[in-house]
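Priority: low. Protein: Galactosyldiacylglycerol synthase. Input follows.
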Amino acid sequence: MKQRTILFLIADTGAGHRSAANAITGAIKLISQREQEAWQAQHAEQLVPSTVAGSASETGVPALEPPTYRIEIVDVFEEYSRFPLREAVKLYGPTIRYNPKLFGDVFHLSNQEGPVKAYQTIATPLILNGLMRLITSVQPDIIVSIHPLLNHVTIHALQELGLKIPFLTVVTDLITVHFTWFAPGANGYIVPTEQAKQLYMERGLDPKRLHMLGMPIDPKFTLPTDSKEELRKRFGLQEGLPTVLLVGGGDGAGGLQAAVKAISQARLPVQLMVVTGRNRRLYAQLLRTRSKFHVPAKIFGFVHNMPELMRASDIIVTKAGPGTICEALSCDLPIILSGYVPGQEEGNVKFVLANDVGVLALDPRTLVNELRKLIKPGSQILRQRLDNARKVSRARASFDIANCILSYLPDLEAESIWHSRQWQRAQRRLSGRLRSAIRLRRRQGTRARKPVGGKTLLRNPVTRRFARTRDLSENGTDTPSTSILRRFIKIKGNGR
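Result:
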């Protein structure tokens, strides 16, 4: 039995990129499990022809035992980039939360070739060696990027190493696809929508490398769950009362607090389930004030049972995150968009409106009015949007993407590039410093990417000091560094 290694490159800017990687990983594991079970069942029945090694059986199951998969998901900026790039990436969460307009301005100004090249010039020296160290340590058979800012530098790293490892890009924006997503030189590009496909074609890239397969969502959304009634009992919800699910994405943005307040003050005949994500401050605040709400409400933090929450609900109110939108469609939920990140999520709003699966409600009055239309007994609008959701839903996209990725893996009989003369020659070209770092990384194994004794290996004292910023911030305590960053964002926003 052979093992294939798949390396996913992400950045935890919001929860969407890691969620997409986890969704594809889950699909790969299920595919592998089914392949192993089918092979074992056929082998036990002795249906595999023994005369020709590697031939296919009558049922189409390969004679060679299917490979197993080792999967690594790595936040490259957090674990392998240098100061100040690593710290700059952390501005994403505070910026979209406190000054989304600033983020939108940066997005639009950078969405063209000139600024992208400038970014590459500045960022590449701060991440290239770390990325090369990661690749040579993990020794993947295929690399998959699920973040736009990692595509150009990964292709550069593979060129520097002189290795021909398949490299794929999985785009996780529905329509507003940033220029950095389509870096020339990748072996394949996986996009979710027809609009994203058109942007790719406009770049003049090879159409044979394009795959339009949908947005990866958790394979759990393809599995059956308990009935709506049973789920509501499990969550302690009232029978016969419409349930509205409010979600703000991984960072708890999107006007969650304002939406809850508006629904409560309107005294709508509904009950709420509110998911605050990683926004611990909002979670604590809603718990403290829940007794004053005029509607029943359940408050959740970051959750791992979103399929159950969605299937227990009748309507979803969410910011325009692409993953949440596609998850809601797979659960036949009409969508009310309460907010969006300018630039990055503008196209997601267009997707929802163009397919008539939801509306945009940026102010409390519109939100309340749209909810009234949907909870009205026998609502024609509700029925129409449910029908449209079923038409555009692609719940099995993760499996399609997983199969596409697996199709780029080398044949089982092929020699691994990491045992080839090509890699032996490439090692001789590496600098002594990089070779030393690789040897250290191998001695420590995968634990080299995790804190050991309060410190992180392969990180200098300056970046270790700044690393404490994120740890304290996640515990709800602002360090001087995060306080300064938050103050800058607010001042910048007021100045505009």
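Residues 50-61, 446-477 have pLDDT under 50 and may be disordered. Residues 3-217+399-490 form a domain with the Rossmann fold fold (CATH 3.40.50.2000).
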